[in-house]
Amino acid sequence: PPDVIGKYAPDAVIGKIGGGGGGHGGEVAKAGGGGGGGGGITMAEVAKHNTKEDCWVVLYGKAYDLTKFGRVHPGGANLIFDNAGKDATAVFDPIHPKDIMAKLLKPSLTMGEVDPATIRPEHVAQLPKKEEHKKKKKAAPAAGAAEEVEFLKPPLATMLNTFDFESVARETMEPQAWGYYSSGGDDEITLRDNHMAFQRITMRPRILVNVRDIDLKTSFLGAQASLPLYFTATALAKLAHADGEVAIVRAAAKAGVPYMLPTLSSYTLDEMLAGRSPGQQLFAQLYVNPER
């Protein structure tokens, strides 16, 4: 029946197109709409959709309806809803690949291209100011106040295990990035179990064995590795460094270990593959979006 959408999915109704008798003629003009005047959605129209219940965001010149996606955004709902009705490209670009919306959203949630001539400074979301890392307090002499000093990265050769790298990352990464990388899901039960599982593994020493020449090479599913380790898929590597996953691809090749490309990467698949060395094998992580 004609009213079935209104009954079962009223929040999916974006508006009318081409209403007769002059007037407004419809709420949304999709990209490529007829006539002159830019042929896109105006930024003033996008700005009307600025609430949690009705959230449009502009990225790279296109408007997207992120009302539902914002609630399940891995980086938190506030990052989406705080930029409702705005052009958030400047906030989005340092972390995400340009094609991620095509991966995560239904085509129907792409509302259309925005007429760039209608975008004003007040429509553009600004990057938050970086927080200054707190200075460490150096132990005070017998008499006197403790001295605050800048944290300095130790030489790479002094890093003995992964916990050493974590302690440095805690001091040098942005708080949001460190919180994302260091935490687990919900109550972090699996995260703790993983740590305890590795702690239960011990090495049985072999006595009177010549260890002058040792070989740690192995393979994973046919992919050769110089160590029994690999780089696992971790989303949004740009949170740690501007080169993101592309740098990890190169590092994996140099170290001779496999790397699993993440689904939610900061670079596109083509950009990551372009960083490969000849003959380098990569794994791929795949999250299947139920609303693809």
Draw up the topology in text.
Elements: H1 4-8, H2 43-47, E1 50-51, E2 54-59, E3 62-65, H3 77-81, E4 86-87, H4 89-92, H5 100-104, E5 110-113, E6 136-138, E7 147-149, H6 162-172, H7 175-182, H8 189-199, E8 218-220, E9 223-225, H9 244-255, E10 259-261, H10 269-274, E11 282-284
Give the CA-CA distance, first to last residue.
26 Å
Principal-axis shape equals globular
Helix and strand succession?
HHEEEHEHHEEEHHHEEHEHE
Question: What is the gyration radius calculated from CA atoms?
Answer: 25 Å
Low-confidence stretches: 18-37
Judged by helices, strands and strand pairing, the structural class is alpha+beta
Mean pLDDT across every amino acid position:
84
Number of beta strands: 11
| Biggest sheet layout | 5 strands, mixed
- The helix fraction, in percent, is 10-25%
How many individual helices?
A: 10
Roughly what fraction of the amino acids lie in strands?
Answer: 5-15%
Describe the structure.
The radius of gyration is 25 Å and the shape is globular. By secondary structure, it is α+β, with helices and mostly antiparallel strands. The chain has ten helices and eleven strands.
Key descriptive features of the protein:
single chain, 292 residues, alpha+beta, 5-stranded mixed beta sheet, two-stranded antiparallel sheet, 11 strands, globular
Could you write a compact summary of the structure shown?
Helices cover 25% and strands 12% of the residues. It is built from 10 helices and 11 strands.
